[in-house]
Amino acid sequence: DAGVIQSPRHEVTEMGQEVTLRCKPISGHNSLFWYRQTMMRGLELLIYFNNNVPIDDSGMPEDRFSAKMPNASFSTLKIQPSEPRDSAVYFCASSRDLLATQYFGPGTRLLVL
Amino acid sequence: GQQLNQSPQSMFIQEGEDVSMNCTSSSIFNTWLWYKQDPGEGPVLLIALYKAGELTSNGRLTAQFGITRKDSFLNISASIPSDVGIYFCAGFPNFGNEKLTFGTGTRLTIIP
User: Fold this and answer.
1) Contact between A42 and B1 using a beta-carbon 8 Å cutoff
2) Can you tell me whether residue A15 is helix, strand or coil?
3) Given this model, what pLDDT does residue A41 score?
4) How many angstroms separate the CA atoms of B56 and B100, rounded?
5) CA-to-CA distance for A45 and A32, rounded, in angstroms?
6) Chain-wide mean pLDDT for chain B?
7) Beta-carbon separation of A106 and B44 below 8 A
8) How far is CA A100 from the centre of its chain?
9) Looking at chain B, which residue has its C-alpha nearest residue A39?
10) Contacts of A8 (CB under 8 A, 6+ apart)
11) How confident is the model over B13-19, as a mean pLDDT?
12) Alpha carbons B29 and B66: distance in angstroms, whole number
């Protein structure tokens, strides 16, 4: 079975540029989560969706961050404009429902210069 | 946000040794999960615990859901080189709280 798929795996961009991260959840999973991982702050929950609807975006650091889930098999996390402090690993995870076990993708390693 | 207290932060052991790590919280959790993260990869689920007192094994791994609902431990027996990585505990803090809370991680290094 295919797990959670994320793209790109690596992204290097310059400050001020727009960055779009993509995620395809496991088929049949109704909940999708975006996390950010840094050495200083560990794993942080940014936003999560249930049945394609955003439930809680209180973890999104600033208005520069936005996320969408137009259908059950695709979600994007966008940073516009990007800043060096956004450099981190961004993970997408999915689960059958909000309280079920979450399965993580391989992550997107973002470096903003 | 809230984080679970995970210890130790790092471990250096020799191949073949047993490993023990734990997670504690000041509040009650109703689900405990243990994940392992290899370098350059996402966390992978090892064991899930759903009931206080539950003891579950997965090969050389054994984890328990503390009876007070405020702690959990993970043991690895007879460690091998591929056990190297970062181990995270995670849990749902209380009934109806749907935000998974993560521990700070235990970095396991195996000395040849």
Assistant:
1) no
2) coil
3) 86
4) 20
5) 11
6) 92
7) no
8) 18
9) B104
10) A21, A22, A108
11) 96
12) 10
Say how many Å lie between the first and final Cα of chain A, rounded: 36
Confidence of residue B109 (pLDDT cuts 50, 70, 90): very high
Rounded to 5°, the CA angle A10-A15-A16 comes to 110
CA angle at B93 for the pair B87 and B96, rounded to the nearest 5°: 135
- pLDDT of B3 strictly over 70: no
| CA dist., res. A71 & res. B14, Å (int) | 48
pLDDT of residue A10: 97
The alpha carbon of residue B7 is apart from the nearest alpha carbon of chain A, in Å, by: 15
In whole angstroms, give the CA distance from residue A28 to residue A94.
10
Residue-wise pLDDT for A41-98, tens only, equals: 889 999 999 999 999 999 998 899 999 999 999 999 999 999 999 999 999 999 999 8
Q: How far apart are CA B25 and CA B66, in angstroms?
A: 11
Q: Taking CA atoms, what residue in A is nearest to B41?
A: A106
pLDDT of B99 reads 85
User: Residue A59's CB: how many other CB atoms inside 10 A?
Assistant: 17
